[in-house]
Amino acid sequence: MKIKTIEVYGFGKWVNQTFESVDQLQIFYGANEAGKTTLMAFIHSILFGFPTKQSSELRYEPRSSVQYGGRLTVCDTVYGEATIERIKGKGNGEVTVTLANGETGSDALLEKIVYGVDKATYQALFSFNLFGLQRIQQMNRSKLNRYFLSVGTLGNEQLLKVADKFQADAGKLYKQTGRVPEINQKMREVEEKRQQVRTAKAKNDEYTTLYTRKEKYEQEIAAVRGSRDKAEKQLEQLSHLAANWQLFSEMLSLQQEIKKMDLVSLPEDGLYQLNHLNQSIEHIRMEIVQEKERSKQIMEKNKLKQSQQVYLAYKEDIQDLMAAMDTVKETLQEKEFIEREIQTETNQFVRSKLQLGLNVGQTLPLPQTEEQKKNYHQLYQVMSKTAQDNQMIEEKSAFLTFQENSLTQQLDKIEPHLWENQHFQETESYYKNKRASDLYQGQENKLNKRPSKKQINPALFSGSIGLIIGIIGSFMNGISGIGLSIIGILMIVLSVLWGFKKNQAVSTETQSGYTYEEYIKQKELRKQWRGVLAEFDHVMMELKQINEALEKNVQQKSEFEKNVKQIIEANHYPENFSISDLVAQPDPFELVREQKQSIEKNEETHNQLTEKLAQWKERARFLESVIFVDWNHIPAVIAGIIQFYQEAVAEEQKLLAVHEKEEERQKQIKKYVYQQREFEQQRLSLFQVVKAKDEQDFRKKFVLFDQWKQKKDRLALLKQQVSADIDLLEQYRDQTDLLEQIEKTKHMIQQYKKNEEQQINQKIKQEVAMKELEKGGAYSVLLQEYANLKSELQELVDKWATYKVAADLIERALTHARKNRFPETIQDTTTFFKMLTKNNYQNVFIKENRIEVKRQDGVIFDAAELSQGTAEQLYVALRFAFVKNASDIVCLPLMIDDGFVNFDQSRKTQMLELMKQVSETTQVLYFTFDEQMLSKFRKEQIEMLY
CB 3.0-4.6 Å disulfide test: which of 87, 429, 549, 790 passes with 69? Predict the structure, then answer.
């Protein structure tokens, strides 16, 4: 997991602060109270929750903000990129985790992102500071070695604290040579009590003898009671026999009377049999009548309906339709799916056409052929060149138009100052006929002054500069050239006007009405006018040529645009398409054509499916008279056919059941008839057995049989009453013998009672003697106290064993961890420690559960013998080695808060190199106030805190 962005709403001094683009190796630099520890605590709180108000940790609630919390943006998690936001709420705060796909969660999702690591484990493994390094120097040799071992294997020194606590708790309960621990004290108490029990037991031999005699008398009493109970039971039986002696005599008399009656040939239940047969015959007659009536009613009730008649008539066709029902449903589902696909693709197709500028019903352009592409490209090049030429011509035309306007303005300014031709010729003739010497001398003085003034005249200088600027602008294209030309012309015009005014000021009158200066000025004006007029003619000629070329280009452009419009119309391109769109790569209509092909393919499939459904529906048309649904709606037809089939099958099953019941009923009727005949035959056989002519004769014979039966019943009752005494009755046929035996049994019982009383008296004497020995209850109390002490001792031993076993299990867990990851961790520790000490220490190895290091000169040191700085470097090497070897299980950012202040500059440099190496696989956030660190990292790796 890597932290990308840290956004603080409010936490300690940080309010509305964001740290973006956190690097794989990020340095947070700041002086004291710059907020380094606060920012580190903020990361802990967002990942694992705010400290509760009852916690000793600082909560860092902001004082200048109402919001408390913030969020982290992390990446490379099991879910990719995620945002973790925690704000003030119940308990550790309200957390919201948002994944890249929009899914949200809370604590359960956050726990998966941080690999199930809690805050204590994270601070123990991936977050350490100077206090954690300095603490190792406060341990003795044993604790230091075990501490290093724990960091190297599991990275959780909390396990060692728990194991030490268990060992300390066990030591409080028992020590081998101790006297104060509870188990030692309890063992002494048990031994003392055991000696007291031995002494009391020596005095208890007489008690044992009495106890043995008492048990003997109890056994004898039990034996006498058993004999007495047996005799009492026998007396009870004999007394019962004597009481029932009259019943026995009656039983013998009845036996003799029954023997004399000659009715043994009559069945005892003859009348019952006769009545039963009569009832059965009548019952069967009624059943036959009822069954026939039920059969008639059911057959009338279950007449075939129209739908059932159709079903039975077209049963095979309907079954064929039902056999194809799954296929039809699949076809219907596929048709509906294709319809949705067509609708979706059609909507997308329309959107795509509109986005490309095509109308909804417009034909799609065909793919460009190679020849078309070539022609379009040539046309594009020609139009591009024409446009460039047209732009140059328009710029040239604008420049010439500007020149035309400028020259026209110059002519308009010069022509009002020109003399008429007659005046100029007269003046010119006058000065030619004048004496050359006088005139020349006078005018030479004037003219000599004029050139000297013109050499330093600003008007001439400004005109020269304007002329140069105008020439340079004429050779330049674009707006800058036009601007320079305009500036040059304006400077020339201003210089001419300025010079013209100067010449007027110094002119004098000639004898012919005009001074010689005015004549010379007029001559120069005419010369200038002719030059400007010649230039104006040249510009107008060029402007005419330019306009002709511009008109030609406009015609060409119109023809090109017409050709492009024809191409667009012929190939159905959008109206807003230009030649540049036609030569664009790739073809913009390829996707739309593919969409259209997909729609056409789906429509073809849809038509095929529709045809299949129509054929199937046509096959089912014969059911239209019994299935009342919208036959244009296939799902309704399918549902109607299924419902019809289910109802018809159910009805068919019902009819089959009715027919089966009817067949069973006819069979039952036949069975009843057969049973009736059987019963009538049995009644006839019964008459024959008793030799009766008819039923009346049969009943007369059974009147005598009832009397015989009553006597027999009485005999049975008597036998039942004396059944328990039958064996004794056979032994005592004489009542006198029975009475004598009763008297003997009573005498025997009296003797048993007397013996029992004697044995009970002897038992009481033994118990009295035992109670005398038990006076005060000394022995029994000692036994009870001894048992209580042993129980208390056992509870303490169980508690002590629990602590010892728990500590041993932790040690075994550490050992097991060493076997799995410890070799790789020690190997990486050696590499890192060697690097940090600049090869001063060559090896780190384990010897009898102790960590030792080997110096370059071969001397071996125990970890406890190292200096403060070297021990801290060993701790850092172990911690970094653990992080590296645990990265396949859990990979979280490593945070360090100024942990290397005790390192010298050389080893601090090596430490930074190690941090860079570790940061290749694990993000490292280093918080420091060491200004020298700033020169060791790139600018983007450093975040300045103020």
Answer: 87
Structure tokens at 380: 């594009």
**pLDDT tens sequence across 301-344:** 655 566 666 777 677 777 777 887 888 888 888 888 888 888 88
Residue 87 in this model has a pLDDT that exceeds 80? yes
What's the gap between Cα 687 and its chain centre? 93
pLDDT, tens digit (0-9, with 9 covering 90-100), for 529-548: 888 888 888 888 888 888 88
**What Cα–Cα distance (Å) separates residue 402 from each residue in 281, 465, 490?**
143, 19, 12
- pLDDT given for residue 936 in this prediction: 84
Burial of 879 (0-12, 13-18, 19+ CB in 10 A): buried
**5: which strand partners?**
73
The predicted structure's pLDDT at residue 449: 37
Give CA separation, 627 vs 308, 324, 329, 621, in Å: 12, 18, 18, 10
Please tell me the class of the 1-126+892-946 domain: alpha beta
Whether the pLDDT of residue 796 is over 80: the answer is yes
Quick one: pLDDT at residue 191?
83
CA distances, 105 to each of 86, 119, 849 (Å): 12, 19, 45
Q: Label the pairing between strands 94-99 and 80-87.
A: antiparallel
**95 — pLDDT class (breaks 50, 70, 90):** very high
CB-based contacts of 226-229 (< 8 A; 24+ apart in sequence): 227/752, 228/749, 228/752, 228/753, 228/756
Q: How confident is the model at residue 435 (pLDDT cuts 50, 70, 90)?
A: very low
Q: Break the chain into its structural domains and give their ranges.
A: 1-126+892-946, 267-364+592-689, 370-581
State the burial class of residue 694 (Cβ atoms within 10 Å of its Cβ: 0-12, 13-18, 19+): exposed
Question: Please, where are the H alpha helices in 174-244?
Answer: 182-202, 205-243
Looking up tokens 């452009």, which residue turns up?
Answer: 557
Closest CA to 113 of 127, 96, 130, 129: 96
Is residue 520 within a helix (H) or strand (E), and if so which, with residue range? Answer: helix 516-570
Q: What is the largest CA-CA distance in the chain?
A: 224
